[in-house]
Amino acid sequence: MSAWYDAHLILVQATFISFLVALSIQFPMRMGVFSFAGVANYALGAYTAAIVVVRSDEIVSPVVSVGAGVLVAVVVSLILALIVRRLRGLYLAMATISVSLIVQVIAFNGGELTGGASGMFGVISDLTIGSVIVVCVVAAGILTWTERGTLGRRIDAVRDDPELAVSMGINVNRYRLVAFVGSGVFGSLAGGLEVLLRSTISPVNVGFSLVVTALTIIIVGGYRSWVGAAIGAVIVTWLPFYLQAMERYQQVIYGLFVVVAAIFVPGGLLGIADQARRRLVRRQLEHEDQEAAAEQDAGGAAVVDAVGASRKEEAR
Amino acid sequence: MNKNLLRSAGIVGATLMTASGLASCGGSGGGSAAATGDCESGLPDTIKIVTVKDQTGVAAYTGTEAWRGIQLAADEINSGDMLDGSKLEVEVKDTAGDVQTAASHVTQAAADSSVSAILGPVLSDQALAVAPIAGKSEVPVVYTQAGSEGIVDEDWNFRATPPLVTYYPKIGQYLEKQGATSVNTVFAADIPTLEQLSHDVLPSVGEDSGFQVGEQVATQSTTQDYAGPVNKAIADDPDALGLLMVGAQISSAMQAVIQSGYQGEVVSYPNAAPAVAEIGKAAAGVTWPTNFDSSIDTPEVKAFDEAYTEAYDGTATNYAAEGYDSLMWVAKAIEEEGCATRDAIKTGLEKVGQAGFTGTQGELTFEANGHDARSDGYVVQWDGEKIVVLEQ
Amino acid sequence: MQELINAVSLGCIYMLFAMGMSLVWGTLDVLNFAHGSIFMFSAFSGFYLMQETGNSLPLAALLLVGVVVGALMSVLAYQLVLRPILRRAKDKDSAERQILIGGIGLAGIPVAIVQIQTLSNPFSFRAGSFEVASYDFLGARISNIQIVIWVVGVLLGTAVVLWLRRSRSGLALRSIGVDSEVASLMGIDQGRLGVAAMAVAGGMAGLSGALLCVSFGALTAESGDVLLLKAFAIIILGGVGSMLGTIIGAFFLAGAETLLIANTSGTWVDAVSFGLLFLVLLVRPQGILGRQEVRRT
User: Fold this and answer.
1) Contact C96 A89 (CB under 8 A)
2) If you ran DSSP here, which 8-state letter would residue B2 be given?
3) How many CB pairs under 8 A join B and C?
4) Together in a domain, B47 and B14
5) How many domains does chain B have?
6) Which residues of B touch A238 (CB under 8 A)?
7) Measured distance CA(B101)–CA(A238) in Å, rounded
8) B379 inside domain
9) Taking CA atoms, what residue in B is nearest to A255?
10) Cβ of C266 and B61 within 8 Å?
11) Same domain (yes/no): B243, B361
12) How do residues C200-258 score in pLDDT, each as one tens digit?
């Protein structure tokens, strides 16, 4: 186990970091915000942490360096959220991709502060993979809470029918703000932790390919829950590893895999699992409906119908 | 070097490929733990060296050429019985242009106690990620190319290619001879080495060789249309124009120069070789300093070029020569110490490095305590049909 | 003067590339991420043909190969991948997402194939029987390939705009873009029109690929990616759904970039297209000439 672990350490690390990067896109997407600012936040988190570590004479705790990155990213995310508040859909996606690419150009032109084209190296810290795992577990815990109960339903309403959400008294704008801030936190955490694990960062690491990676993870895994991001992160990190037998053609196979996933698995792998579960639930519900109909109590039947309908709706 | 923008969504996680099929379980790999044992029993029967270089992706050409050179060196070492009956066993792992994949392969090789040394990646961003891993797991890594600063700063890291910036000053002799007093450049600003050439190296060479560097037009590795940048660079009609960019960009920039009607000297760097060969006559006169060319007249180069042509057709490239020299360096280190443990190879590499040796890249000396190769270099010129050596 | 010539040539190149993308985005709601790959692979096909047969082809033949391969790839992508995705998607948002990711997956395949074939080295049409030459023109230099690009650009730009505005099929296509349900109620065959639009888009991508391979001297497997991002900026700049807007956007971006290269150190050029894109989105999300998109917030 230990030998296997030593040999695959980088892939294990990559899985957790990819998970966080994916969350920075998936979290806003769940609230109907199609934003790629997560990649800009990754860059901000990584560069801030690197600058803090390299520029200070004493050894800096990862909490401080990564924390500084998160702070910067959250502030920038808040400002960005205000600036782009009118944009929706693909337009928002394009605007946030532009922001990410502009951040990359700034990193190129940052002179001594960012190390210019060579980027920064020698970002040494005592961060262990254990801490990264703890961060991921905590993130997953918090997200589980937002996906359940009233809060979960409110978020679904904000995404699926913002007008209805407004009429229900939900402050949609506040949710959108939270979406941006969440993206800032996850993105900068991923960037900060990655730079401490890898010890280098350069502008090529924070480019468009990261957008593509994150999007692939979410679409393959499923965007409705953090579980999808986790599934996607595992697949996207480890699949190429197992495609080694294809040698030169691994990229071709990989492309085909993504295409097939896009056509046939619109909800991601998580969606397939959900569908199977819901089909089961629906079958049960239909059974209950028949029993309820037999009761013949007018008021009672109406209530049961309403409940049944809403549960069916949910099961769809 | 540039990562392409989309990267086809493919190289996202980690890609892995081996020539020999060894891979998934590096740790407990069978056989003797030759690399970490002691030296009393002498050399083991086989010494395993892992090559981690791009075989696919954006730097596939550089990586596959280096791997060719490494295989030629291994054949020569094994068939010539250079290591007293002990055989070198080389295998290659593909980094597919990806930093994380490179790091992953090096980590796996380092965890495999039967691996004695690693021949590291060619791209600087990969090498920078690999260097601390080598230091931490105490395995010697010898790079080719990877000219960035900060790579051999870490102990356990060695570089067999003289960084471009160290032999580039050779161009000064040529420019002085041509009577050039003004030089402008167009360069890829996001490639650290090329930016350094334009901003630091050329101006300081100019101080000795009597020219001044004027307009320096920065482009990106995303730049495709070179008409604008080239026009700006030749606006004040300099005596010489430096073209410093990668891949298809050199072709594009040269085409723009040809179309512009510019008549002065054009200087570039070794990556220009394929571009001028393709353009042919119209590119005659393009000149650059290099660490290797197959037409250089030394016994080492002749022998190497012959072996290369026999094995692969065509003439030997500088990347192949560097790969060849890097494995030769490791073999000499093993020979020197009479031992193939990681510690011994590191010590041996340093000793051989401090003494210097003659390879396909000419007389190599080493700086940074025997870690970092240096050579005088040559100046070569494309005469419209072939490359000729001007300054040897 | 020289700057003007360069900017116009670059603008024509951007225009040829972006118009096809704009066409299918504005009408079929297909933001085709594989457009850049199609562009690159069409040019590569010409190169491959010459390499394999050992023949030297004239420019016209290379352009023809580009158009045919581009149109073919584009139609295949539509029929096999993009259309099935559109058909299965249950709402506009999920359609956009799936189209995006499907396109990304598709785009990777030709790039990987060409990387394998060329070892990521540049490929060019130098074996072709076409010599690039340049002439003095009003104190500046202009090359024969630039003239070809200008002519093709003007002809095709006008043709596509006229097609959409004047012809019945163009009108039908635009009506799909405005409201596809109403369009099909009016008896418009969306399948055939969609294929036609994709073929035109792919053909233009292929044509620009072949032209650029000559004009830039060489292309690599990744050449399409850079243009793809610029084309996004151009289309949004001009307004999705407006061909004239795309043309204006292309020349605007080319002009801005050329000016920036001429007057600054050049390291910020990449920021221009994205900065412009961002600003336009903030001030006028529908672009310079775009129609206001009706969408529920």
Assistant:
1) yes
2) P
3) 142
4) yes
5) 2
6) 13-14
7) 11
8) no
9) B10
10) no
11) no
12) 999 999 999 999 998 888 888 888 988 898 898 898 888 887 888 999 999 999 998 88
